[in-house]
Amino acid sequence: MNQIRHFDLELAELKRSLVTMGNLVERSLTIAVESILKANVEGREQCRILEEQVDILETVIEDRCHTIIALQQPMAGELRLVISAMRITSDLEQVGDLAESIAKRASYIARNHRVENPEALAILGHLVVSMVHHSMESFVTGNLNLARGVLTDEDSADDLTKQCYERIQVAMQEQPEKIREYTHLLRAASLLEHIGDIAVSIAEETVYIHRGTNIRHHHDSLDQA
User: Fold this and answer.
1) Using CA atoms, how far apart are residues 53 and 48, in angstroms rounded to an integer?
2) Is 67 helix (H, G, I), strand (E, B) or coil?
3) Count of domains forming the chain
4) What are phi and psi of 143, to 5 degrees?
5) How far apart, in Å, are the Cα atoms of 104 and each of 31, 126, 146, 194?
6) Nearest to 62 by CA among 91, 30, 26
7) What's the count of helices (H) and strands (E) in the chain, helices before strands?
8) Does residue 219 have a pLDDT over 80?
9) pLDDT by residue (tens digit) across 136-171?
């Protein structure tokens, strides 16, 4: 096997590992969202198990990236892929951590006083899962329209989070005996918004990989790239 062929296989394996990691994280996030919407305790352990698998993959992918850089000396587009892969790996690991945290808060609510979810919370949760899915699909396929959609969804996620905050704060005043549960619900909404921001970061990295353009803080430049 010649060196170029070996390098191509290394990059392909790197992408496959990232896809596997993305699938695990998306599954964990979906469980976390359902847990907070239905206030169940089962999601916490499920997310914990998935997070352990994600942590292992993070180490494997980072080691592979370091090896590729040290031994293969990638150029231009290949180097962008490897550098972005390390960033996306970190992003995905963080999403896994946040999903586990959401599931923990759902478990607390389930074990104490049930509270009424704002209508916007379900919309926000499903939107954020979609954003993570589309950002990774864009990375895999190079479809920058998907990345563009994730960037556009950021404003919707922010608006939905604000609606959640407003409704939960009213509920805290009306039901002070449940203020701890509502505090956990408020934090869950904040974590979902944060995950949406991370999905945007992955979409930005995808544009960098495929276009060689850094659009952080300049999303309008995507249409000009």
Assistant:
1) 9
2) helix
3) 1
4) -80, 100
5) 11, 18, 31, 16
6) 91
7) 6, 0
8) no
9) 999 999 899 999 999 999 999 999 999 999 999 999
Identity at 53, one-letter amino acid code: Q
Give the side-chain half-sphere CA count within 13 A for 7.
15
Q: Would you tell me how many other CB atoms lie within 10 Å of the CB of residue 135?
A: 29
User: Where do we find the tokens 């950002």?
Assistant: 135
Q: Which amino acid is at 151?
A: L
| 105: containing domain | 3-224
In this predicted model, what pLDDT tens digit does every residue of 69-99 receive, in sequence order?
Answer: 887 676 767 888 888 899 999 999 999 999 9
- Return the pLDDT at 214: 65
pLDDT of res. 6 = 67
Compute the half-sphere exposure of residue 89: CA atoms within 13 Å on the CB side of its CA: 25
Q: Are 189 and 93 in contact (CB under 8 A)?
A: no
pLDDT band at 225 (very low <50, low <70, confident <90, very high): very low
Chain mean pLDDT for the chain: 91
Answering whether pTM is above 0.70, one says: yes
Per-position b or e across 164-201, b if 16+ CB within 10 A of its CB: bbebbeebbeeeeebeebbebbbebbebbbbbbebbbb
CATH number for the domain spanning 102: value is 1.20.58.220
Give the span between the Cα atoms of 44 and 36, in whole angstroms: 10
